[in-house]
Amino acid sequence: MLNLNNKVSIITGASSGIxxxxxxxxxKLGSDLVxxxxxxxxLDETISKCNTKTKIIKIIxxxxxxxxxxxxxxxxxxxxxxxxxxxxxxxxxxxxxxLNTKIEEYDEVMNTNLKSVxxxxxxxxxxxxxxxxxxxNVSSIAGTKSFQNLLPYSMSxxxxxxxxKCVALELADKGVRVNSVNPGTIETNIHRRAGYxxxxxxxxxxxxxxxxxxxxxxxxxxxxxxxxxxxxxxSSFTTGEIIHVDGGRHAMTPR
Length: 255
Ligand SMILES: NC(=O)c1ccc[n+]([C@@H]2O[C@H](COP(=O)([O-])OP(=O)(O)OC[C@H]3O[C@@H](n4cnc5c(N)ncnc54)[C@H](OP(=O)(O)O)[C@@H]3O)[C@@H](O)[C@H]2O)c1
Hints:
It contains 9 helices and 7 strands, in the order βαβαβαβαβααβαααβ. It has 255 residues and is of the alpha/beta class. Helix content is 47%, strand content 14%. The relative contact order is 0.15. The termini are far apart. Helix 1 crosses helix 9 (220-231), helix 3 (66-80) runs parallel beside helix 4 and helix 4 (103-131) packs parallel to helix 6 (151-172). InterPro entries: NAD(P)-bd_dom_sf (IPR036291), Sc_DH/Rdtase_CS (IPR020904), SDR_fam (IPR002347). It holds the Pfam family adh_short_C2.
């Protein structure tokens, strides 16, 4: 039976979408949590849906800032004495191509989606080694498949997938497992934040019925379920794995 009893999990980007669903599920499965976001009201909303029997610490701040990364780790150790699980989920999505990507936009995407993941994982690694813990990175179908007009985002996720596999090899003999989930289109706030109007978002979701083999978009808890499996002892022989949670989109080829 899947459970996360005795786990202490750090989850970034828990104020919305996949991170929020993951925090709620993890707490229901028995994990204590340290959760991060910039929107305090939204983080409180996440906490209000969590299991009241688990302890939850919220950290408000930007995952790109090294003092916030350090705070996540020190608060976790001070309150719980250990870190068993790191879910690197926070990310930004931008619509831009080689013709119009601004370097500031490139930096924001790479620093949020990739550099902060390396920095936070580095800070957590000694503590994860002590607990033979796990890291789960939230990547994307854009890490393994190529799309137009998602250039820095796709680059960040492709690099994240290589990060997952390399770090899995580096930490394997220390008993730490490192895996990735790569979602297809999941209904969250990420597309609206990238500038989609309601009308454009509706059209996009409609088109997703044809771009995902299962004929629909996914929901945040469908990704959270796979993250929970990877965080649990049920996946004890799985590391360096990139798992698509994408309704079969990665297997599709235009014809
Ligand atoms: N939804 C999809 O279709 C889809 C598809 C493939 C992959 N993904 C991946 O899934 C993950 C979660 O995305 P989502 O769809 O759930 O998006 P979302 O609803 O926009 O949530 C993003 C989360 O990341 C946090 N975040 C972003 N930048 C941050 C920063 N600088 N500092 C701290 N927190 C930050 C946000 O927190 P605040 O708002 O509080 O700042 C929010 O909690 C991402 O890694 C994304 O790339 C999503």
